[in-house]
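User: Need the bound-state model for S-adenosyl-L-homocysteine:
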Amino acid sequence: MELIADYDLEELKKTVASLGQPSFRAGQIYKWIYGGAEFSEMTNIPAALRDDLAEKYLAQPLRIKEKFASSDGSVKFLYECYDGNVIEGIYMPHDYGNTLCVSTQVGCRMGCSFCASGIGGLVRNLSAGEIAAQVIAVNKFLDGNATERKLSNIVLMGSGEPLDNYENVTKFLRLITDKNSLDFGMRSISLSTCGLAENIRRLADDGYGVTLSLSLHATTDESRRELMPIANKYTLNEVISAVKYYFEKTGRRIIFEYALVKGKNMSYFDCKRLAELTRGYPSHVNLIKLNYVKEKGMQGCSNEEAERFMKKLNEMNVSATIRRSFGNDVGGACGQLRRSYIARR
Ligand code: SAH
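Assistant: Bound-state model below.
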């Protein structure tokens, strides 16, 4: 089975032409896909063409299997892919707009010491259309008729390492920012990476201009290696120089994610080194209160400790805030919904 959602409009035109149909049909089908429709629902498409397409292709490669609404307005989603794999995401209503966090891989092979997504390793990459389908499905969930875009921001911060799935993730960026699809701006999309330095540079060179978030989480190579295996491949020096390059090429401020882990990265010296690492170019530090993952055993910190760390950073003239956490009453950190589903099954 091939996924129609993997196609951009030009590719869809070719497919439609190969079936002997006029190219305006491609535009119609494309619109339906981004509205979340199945072939059977595409009422302005001739039935014979719908049948031809349905024989070879899937219109929607995933569906919302379970949803959990939190009292804070966020909704966690468990999606089922066409091959039976499950992935997850969360919708978060912010005052500046509605944000959807999407997954880019089933599982992850980065193996960070505090993260649930990596338990069980990488199963497979998600295709461009499967990443888009998460946005499509939730947009349709928010707007039953799917006649307009209800989401304003996308963050690639769900399961998976986006820069470990470069081709599909960048095709997703092209698809979702197409004015004929859902017309997101690159600037309203954030990509979070554990720091694949070469691909950070590639992303800069390829000119996508999304907001780059770097999962830093440590201020020395030694402590970073303890938390994140990727630090064995790229030193802090290499990662920081890659994000500076990203800023120079795109003009985009760099966001640093720093999860406070008890006994690992919260000392005064960490604070000082963090200030040094993030100085000299536009940047912002998002302090994250660690979500407890029992298989991993890493402990987070109290609100007071997070506040204290933030104040120290602010005193050193570092722009830093504590990231608001969503959906705490409907299950734990990202990756845990999928794990609990697999355990139940
Ligand atoms: N692979 C990418 C994106 C997915 S993770 C990356 O590493 O950036 C999104 C963010 O959540 C990362 O900053 C990641 O380090 C963080 N994270 C992972 N597990 C967490 C946990 N248990 N508590 C808090 N943040 C966590």
